[in-house]
Write a structure and sequence with these properties.
2 copies of one chain form a homodimer.
Chain A (H helix, E strand, L loop, with lengths): L17 E10 L4 E3 H8 L5 H8 L3 E3 L7 H16 L8 E6 L9 H8 L8 E5 L4 H14 L4 E8 L2 H6 L14 E10 L4 E8 L7 E3 L20 E3 L2 H23 L8 E3 L5 H11 L10 H4 L6 H11 L8 E7 L4 E8 L1
Parallel strand pairs in A: 4-5, 4-6, 11-12
Antiparallel strand pairs in A: 1-7, 2-3, 6-7, 8-13, 9-10, 12-13
Chain lengths: 346, 346
């Protein structure tokens, strides 16, 4: 399935107006859903023990039908702005990298501004880039600050539980995988350089490996009704997700280290997308990084799509492990079609 | 419905690595659909003459079920790259501002790269920002070039006809409005300054005025099937679209002119979104711009969402009316929630 793709050369950031991460936040649905809850709800032939053993997941958060995407965004942003002690009116731009929004149109980032009762008409839009979306959003934010913005608010994450719940016979291989969460990050002007390198890549030969079918392509003449499964993320081959994550982790690390002149030993923390505990471990092994320099929250939150990396970063920050001045390599990988990473001094 | 929003101050572009528009292209479905075709297909009580009189539209292009979004993107990009005499492998980034993609995941911009059989893993993602999306994409492209990219390929537009065709009883007020089209633009490094100012705004108090319901918010417990109408753009109040377009056209023009020190008389062409012929005329009237300095292709293509402005620009270029060195004010407006504009020397 996978063909040889030549990965682009890394390009230096032509930036002399610097940005830094000011603060982070996370918004989570109220309901903690255990493996047993899912087994019971969908009457599956599985045991909590087997699921934990094979996937490494214990629980995840799932939205109820009365929870909106903008509610989770609001919680994440309130935490983020409170930590920064910055009012929403100071923000120059809002970018939300979504799996689904509350609606397709308008952008859910505008729904967030309404919920905030923002008085200023802040420019805002949504991105669709699945798991790698937060790396695109961070890359965008530092370029906006470089070219004039003072504060850029970025959000990412997934709300998929309502879709799973509507789908009467969900795929038993993936129904345990996904969780709902939104991560927020405020990136703002900095007098000193913090972001040292950024790198993104795609591999179109893996375009078919993970799909959310909603779109115009599956529409067929004569269709009467749509099955709710069009909202669901279907993964064709889990091994490709595993192998490509490890492979790209290495490609991206090499590009970032060469660009910055650093070695892996200089990096204090490796923050990445943990689509499963095994995928996280495979990335560490590929890069020869000890577990103490990274972490996975997959057991607790599952695959939260573009929120995986920033939730891990947020947790390292609030737990006090990651300190200002530490060097971070942050990466995010999807099911093979898009990946990215950055090195920054927190 | 509309509340007072304080529009943000325009911020100077902190850019010393310049960009310019290198080339443009347009991809259109094969089928030209007349008003009479729609009247016949949906058995509507209307006449071609009445539709032409009230809306100013004669025909539009509608995709067939076997046409993909990536097919239209491909046609637009081939034209764009051929004009520029640039190979796809030279492109540093692809951004598609969509209404719908072929799928929700992966990004349809990656599907385009597969169709091109691109050998390089070019970073690519999709944006959701409805009608104002192309202004965001252009704004993004010049910031990418400012911070290191050489060539950024942006695309925008709408493919909605399949959705309309599935929906047995489409809204008779809006079924004539929308057309399918994809516009492409190659923005690249320039030794001289071309983009003089850029301005974007949102108004969250108009969040509910136009909706594409696909998203998690309309999902309800116990739902069995989804109606294809979730794909359709519903407009709550057409007067708001009309009034906000004229109002924002003025706000944006004033900000852009103040920032550049230019007057409206200095502008050679005003290129804008023409959601109807009347909306186009209202913008010109508000800005006191003679019709010779602008144009509307609404009669021919209808509302193509984020493709409206770039298709008008493309047509001015290929018809030879717009010449290198001309000053252009380009704007794009949606149904009120998001708008933007730029001044550039073509």
């Amino acid at each position: 399935m996978e063909k040889e793709i030549r990965f682009p050369e890394i390009r230096p950031l032509n930036i002399d107006r610097y940005a830094r991460i000011i603060s982070t936040g996370v918004g989570l649905p109220k309901a903690v859903v255990t493996n047993q809850d899912i087994i019971d709800e969908f009457k599956l032939l599985a045991t909590d023990r087997a699921v934990q053993y094979s996937l490494g997941i214990k629980e995840r958060r799932w939205s109820d039908f009365d929870e909106k995407v903008e509610d989770l965004m609001m919680a994440a942003v309130e935490q983020c702005l409170e930590t920064a002690n910055i009012d929403i009116e100071k923000v120059d731009r809002v970018i939300f990298t979504k799996l689904f929004g509350d609606y397709q149109v308008p952008a859910t980032s505008i729904g967030l501004l309404r919920k905030f009762k923002a008085k200023k008409g802040i420019p805002a839009f949504d991105i669709c880039s699945a798991c790698s979306g937060f790396m695109h959003a961070m890359d965008l934010a530092i370029r906006y600050v470089a070219t004039g913005d003072d504060y850029v608010l970025i959000l990412g994450g997934s709300v998929i539980a309502k879709c799973v719940r509507l789908w009467k016979s969900p795929d038993p291989k993936t129904v345990f995988l996904f969780g709902d969460a939104i991560a927020a990050m405020l990136i703002g002007y900095s007098e000193t350089k913090s972001f040292l390198a950024s790198y993104l890549l795609t591999n179109h030969s893996l375009y078919d490996n993970a799909k959310v079918n909603f779109g115009t392509e599956f529409l067929r003449s004569g269709m009467e009704d749509l099955n709710p499964s069009i909202f669901y993320m279907r993964i064709a081959d889990g091994n490709i997700v595993f192998n490509s994550s490890a492979k790209y982790a290495k490609v991206i690390a090499e590009k970032l280290l060469r660009e910055t002149g650093l070695t892996m030993e200089d990096i204090d923390f490796f923050v990445t997308s943990d689509q499963s505990e095994k995928i996280w471990e495979a990335q560490l092994k590929e890069l020869n990084i000890p577990k103490e320099k990274s972490q996975s929250l997959f057991h607790k939150y599952g695959n939260t799509v573009s929120a995986m990396s920033p939730i891990n970063l947020h947790d390292l920050i609030v737990s006090g492990r990651l300190k200002r001045g530490n060097l971070v390599m942050m990466q995010a990988h999807g099911a093979g079609a898009s990946s990215g990473g950055m090195i920054f001094r927190y």
